[in-house]
Amino acid sequence: MRLLLTRPLPAPVMQAARARFEVTARDSTLPLTRPELEAALADYDLVLPTLGDLFSADLFTAKPRARLLANFGVGFNHIDVSAARAAGVMVSNTPGAVTEATADIALTLILMTARRAGEGERLLRAGAWQGWHPTQLLGQHVSGKTVAIIGMGRIGQAIARRCHFGFGMKVIFHARRPLALDFPAEQVPFETAMQADFVVLAVPGGAETRHLIDARALGLMRPHAILVNIARGDVVDETALIAALQQGQIAGAGLDVYEQEPTVPDALKALETVTLLPHLGTAALEVRTAMGLMAVDNLIAFAEGRPPPNALP
Q1: CA 200 to chain centre
Q2: Is the dihedral of CA 286, 290, 296, 300 positive or negative?
Q3: Which of 202, 244, 250 is nearest to 98 (CA)?
Q4: String of DSSP letters for 87-135
Q5: Cα 128 from Cα 122, distance rounded (Å)
Q6: How many CA atoms lie within 13 A of 57 on its CB side?
Q7: How many angstroms separate the CA atoms of 15 and 129, rounded?
Q8: With the C-alpha atoms ordered 108, 97, 310, 292, is the resulting torsion angle positive or negative?
Q9: CA-CA distance, 132 to 290, in Å (whole number)?
Q10: How far is Cα 284 from Cα 289, in angstroms, rounded to an integer?
Q11: What is the value of pTM for the model shown?
Q12: pLDDT in tens, 47-73
């Protein structure tokens, strides 16, 4: 079966794919263009796409040759799954492999933003540091504070565990359905969650969560609070967030994802109260390898007539 790999992947993943399929691998690290998206569906039996490869509904109107999109990543809001399914194309993803690494990045953003680490590094690198003094770059203590997790799936729970067991934080959370957890965490309404010291977004992307954090939601936050987003960029209305930060409505934000990646608004980049990372959530070699091998497992299962282990419903 002909397989298209849309981006360069870790060597073990490339080897595993080539051992089983007739592979075409793009050298580019950029998302597929519109003509490439059309060709992917028309010319290949299987496609291993990833974030930014925008398989919108209109691409599936012509009967595709492809039968499976084995997405590299847990998030799949760049694929219109309903349209794919209607055209006879299955979609799978790679849950589980990304959980711990993404949770680590959430804690990185909490700590960097609360303790003004990015601001301090910029000061030092600019040659402007004049030495230690008692009131320099005073940030916020993290231990013992209240953290709210918005979205309590695998990643949300991994973040909550780190906050509770690692930093003695009080954990509250908001989720769409009642959850019973095996560590101390209180499920609360959305409005209550938004009033925590730290608010961490861990919801799936998609139409249901687009601009979940808008001007109204930001207005619920306290002036000393910090917002962290490791979910999807469009969960946050960036225009509203910039206004809240510029006006001192909230104390800061830690972001790993953006509405129009890779474009980051200049207004965000100009704010010292914001930590900005270039979508590093799963950027560890072991993790990206595990994600790729999970995607290949989905492909092999499909090729052998078995249900892919991580097929989307």
Answers
A1: 12
A2: positive
A3: 202
A4: TT-EEE---STTHHHHHHHHHHHHHHHHTTHHHHHHHHHTT------TT
A5: 9
A6: 3
A7: 48
A8: positive
A9: 43
A10: 9
A11: 0.94
A12: 999 999 999 999 999 999 999 999 999
